[in-house]
Amino acid sequence: xxxxxxxxxxxxxxxxxxxxxxxxxxxxxxxxxxxxxxxxxxxxxxxxxxxxxxxxxxxxxxxxxxxxxxxxxxxxxxxxxxxxxxxxxxxxxxxxxxxxxxxxxx
Length: 106
Fold this sequence. Notes:
Elements: E1 6-12, E2 15-21, H1 25-45, H2 51-81
Helix pairs in contact: 1-2
């Protein structure tokens, strides 16, 4: 029989949920805690919203964060994959600066 991953019961915004997924039970609990915290933050700003609206807004916020992180990662990979510029030709050595002194006029 194949292993179906971790199984855990969590509470998200007052709803008990049985979850099963890849990773450890601690990881699933952490993800559930993240969603719960985000939903509570949304509800704290607009308490009149239904649970469904709170869940949708929390999901949109998390999706926006994920999208921004993905864009940043793609930009970083593109920069890292860009070929390095050719080294500049060796320049002639720069002579040391001349010492300039002030001589009073006679």
